Amino acid sequence: MNHVHTVCVRFHTAIELLGARWSGAILRVMFTGAHRYADIRAAVPGISDVMLTRRLRELEEAGLLRREVLATSPVQVEYHLTQMGEETEPVLNAVIDWSHRWLPLPPGTADDEESHPREPGGTPRRSARA
Hints:
The chain has helices spanning 9-18, 23-30, 37-43, 49-61, 83-86, 89-102; strands at 35-36, 65-70, 76-81. Strand 2 (65-70) and strand 3 (76-81) form a beta hairpin. The protein has a domain at 20-102: Arc Repressor Mutant, subunit A (Orthogonal Bundle), CATH 1.10.10. Strands 1-3-2 form a three-stranded antiparallel β-sheet. With 130 residues, the protein is α+β, with helices and mostly antiparallel strands.
């Protein structure tokens, strides 16, 4: 007799949050330190201003990012990972490893190994945080 696992509510919520379009890419950018909106926009090819704004707000509301308004003239805003956001790094690194093992690159796409630095032996290198 087959046993079917019911889906854990926390698991489902986490997958929906991290798996929402662009969320993983934004978090991946944030693993390198605090960034301003324009830096994030430039690092995530194809994302629109509307979608970036929406995802930044969602990630902030979920507790993964913290928005900091800098007292400069003109006013600037930086985004920082919270501890909760930082702890998504091994999860996303596992997805990267899985994707490199099982998903072929689409035809005409350049190899993206450079965007995922690795330690000798193939494991992802820990990001340097600012």
